């Protein structure tokens, strides 16, 4: 059940980086000594206990607090799912999947998330809208077909406020399209994943609606929507389309509530360098490798963020960059290109 976790040694950057290989060996040794990761299990218990308490006692909480707690718990559970995708917290994938089986955010099947995220970790394809399922860039063809309103949406979606408000709706639209496509094409693997997801949704809604008496509209508005928005906050500035693979992923220093919420995935350049490293080991390894990672992530170009407050100040009302992928902008400008594989293998000026 499930797929094997991404191997740390599988990425090209790891094979050529002695420091990375040393840390991989330490991480592998730690897993052999203590294969079950207690800190991650503690997080899982905290999420489910917190979720049960907040939903059951929702009537006693003011709406502003319910919004904060509900969104935090749903996004935190998404971070836990991310850990499971990378083989944590136990050596057994079937058990890891059971731990995150309830779908608190309702709209994203775990199987789909796992498949797209593992594809996203092929770093040579990062940000390429044709090859990276988690890219927020679009191709020239998609840009042309979007029309004026679609282009306005894509541009607004690239500022932080637009991402937080429109992003959850966009996710819902994409997932609705995915299940429709699976039904039309008769994709049995995808349909099986959606069937499992249906059970995961039912498990959550039985508790929320029947046991806790929380109305569905309120759960969607105070839990699901802000939970997805917080997840989109994390991913907003993680990647950029540049020729250097090592510079495509940012480091986002985070205030402790966000570091805990995202399980240190804000140290994203390190996560891509060592995707199998447990979340609670990331800060120490980052401190050891900080100079190299900061240089690779591009301090001079602003891709080392000092906190999420900096992202808010810089991009709340202003697009981070154009939605059109740089290689595609180069193509639209009529310049000759020979793009094979990743669009940035033969980069031109945007």
Automatic annotation (TrEMBL):
Keywords: Membrane, Transmembrane, Transmembrane helix. Pfam families: FA_desaturase. Residues 63-294 form the Fatty acid desaturase domain. Residues 1-21 are annotated as: Disordered. This is Fatty acid desaturase. It comes from the Bacteria. The keyword Membrane applies. The chain crosses the membrane at residues 38-57, 160-179, 191-209, 215-233. Residues 1-18 have a biased composition (Polar residues). InterPro entries: FA_desaturase_dom (IPR005804).
